[in-house]
Write a structure and sequence with these properties.
eight-stranded parallel beta barrel
Amino acid sequence: MTAAVNALFQPFQLGSLQLPSRVVMAPMTRSFSPNGVPTADVVEYYRRRAASGVGLIVTEGTTVNHPAANGYAHVPRFYGEDALAGWKKVVDAVHAAGGKIVPQLWHVGNVRRQGTEPQPEVPAYGPMEKRKNDQVVVHGMTRQDIQDVIAAFAQAARDAKAIGMDGVEIHGAHGYLIDQFFWEGSNQRTDEYGGSLANRSRFAVELVAAVRAAVGPDYPIIFRFSQWKQQDYTARLVTTPEQLGEFLAPLSAAGVDIFHCSTRRFWESEFEGSELNLAGWTRQLTSKPTITVGSVGLDGEFLQFMVKTDKVAQPANIEGLLERLNRQEFDLVAVGRALICDPDWALKVREGRMQEILPFSREALKTLA
């Protein structure tokens, strides 16, 4: 193992969180949990990645206990005795394999379609009401609704700690509920949760603070955010380092321990005049550890491979990534599609067997391997 690759397999410690490597499994919706309950296949799916040297697994998005939290079939819940028992089996298997694991806690917000399980009659919830043909398709959240959702996230975090999860990740990215509050286009409220970016961030800040209160001072909280959203890949929430600092500071103060900075291509600089990517800037501005992500280990960014296509993403060298990690631009590296198609990706990288890494295609999404 070269000195550069060795950086990826150094231990990482933050308080009670001790990771055997810097490799993180990125959260990726797989939809293999009927009725929201992780199966034996889901247990084995995560166990195999931990056994290959992934230091931290961030689970696929798991919905909190709110009637409108879910937007897709067969995604796992993070509430109810049956679902939590399923996740306990995942936790035990990952720990036995030497890894650590956190659930990604999720509310989809206004992208939910009516008819989605488990309560088909419930409309989507979002910052603003939306009507179609004189029918409410998105319920504009009241102050009480906001508090209900915050309480659901806090309870999910409490449950995560109770079943042995090593922390939690709050999904504040990609155009889902928390992110919808951040954006002026989707949040035109006139109360304290709308207006300035500081006001639009209030929901997230209060949510993080409630999670922190629920789990205590030493339990790790990761917050995932993005400059882009699924409805607009060119969107930018902030356009300068100063604005990014103003956005991140209240979240950091509320209790975030690690920022998971979602980008489509980790190698792209975030602002003109600096080579730092979003994770690099976030680390510099907050002094908190960061996770970088975005087409790691593959020769193209994810969009071109997620549509109906025969294209295959081939493994790519990670020399540029390792250089950045060695410079301490960021602390942890999240790997997505490369780990879907090859559960032994980390082991093969560590042993220098890059030529043996399996390529990614959409076919890999059809099974849990």
